[in-house]
Write a structure and sequence with these properties.
Elements lengths: L7 H25 L11 H24 L7 H17 L11 H19 L31 H19 L7 H18 L7 H6 L17 H11 L8 H9 L2 H4 L1 H13 L6 H6 L5 H8 L2
Helix pairs in contact: 1-2, 1-3, 1-11, 3-5, 3-11, 5-6, 6-8, 6-9, 6-11
Length: 301
Amino acid sequence: MAAKHVDPTTHLAVDTSILAYLLHNSTLTLLRAPPPTPQSRPTPASARKLELPLQMVDSFLTLFHTAHPTAPHDPILHHRLLLLRFTALFTLRHTPCTSTPSPPALAALRRTHAARAAAFLAQRDPTAGCDLAAYECPALASVAERPAPQLSLLDTLPLFVELAVRTEALYGDAAAQDWRVLAGRYMAAAAVEAYLVCGAEGPGALREAFAWGVEGEGEEGVCGDGWEVERGKAVRMLIPPEGVGLGEWLREVEGSRALREVEEDVRAFLGGLLSVGEVPVLVRGERGELGELGKLGELGW
């Protein structure tokens, strides 16, 4: 009996649909998990359970690249991958797991981030004109008081900016509405965490957190219109009033609504991005939104 040969175009369409389904469900699983609190952090066992869908994605990606080594770039699929990558790092950052970069990889990542920030700061310092004398003090963090996460917000910040910018470029302003406001709060929260939890000293972490600019404001100018105002507001929020110590002020800022709810708002933002564009056909089929013929037709069978 002669072997049947699958049409390469149909094969690619089917595998793309399967990969989009796995990426969507893996991202959704991570976002549905209860967010960690200082009193309740994910255990390694619970983190491994959350990672099972990620392992399915990794396995299928290997098969996908083997079967389709010359597949053209798919910007929508790339966006789904980027969304899952950031969501995994963000939601699992408090617990060591297979998604956590190894110590050498994390050190290399931080050097890359520092070099990017230094290149930007050489042309424009977002803290220029601010009195940073309060930041010239010993480390504020106390490991006994609050353990540092496996990945800091500062570690995940560049990927957040990349995801937001790519979303806007791919789907337009409405898809990533108000992300610059959220970015300013994210950067402020990253700086506060760096000092109160991770042991940062000096103004370097503050400057690195805000080393993102508008187009034409340096090699890393990516944030576009309206960003300079939002960045300025967020920077000024972290400058203590005269006579107030840095630790006291940062703890007060940390407890404000702007920062207290930032991680919850990032999760909501990611959930919104999950529904941007067309929902994967297999997800729609699983929800019962397609008849059998509709599903087969959309997959090209």
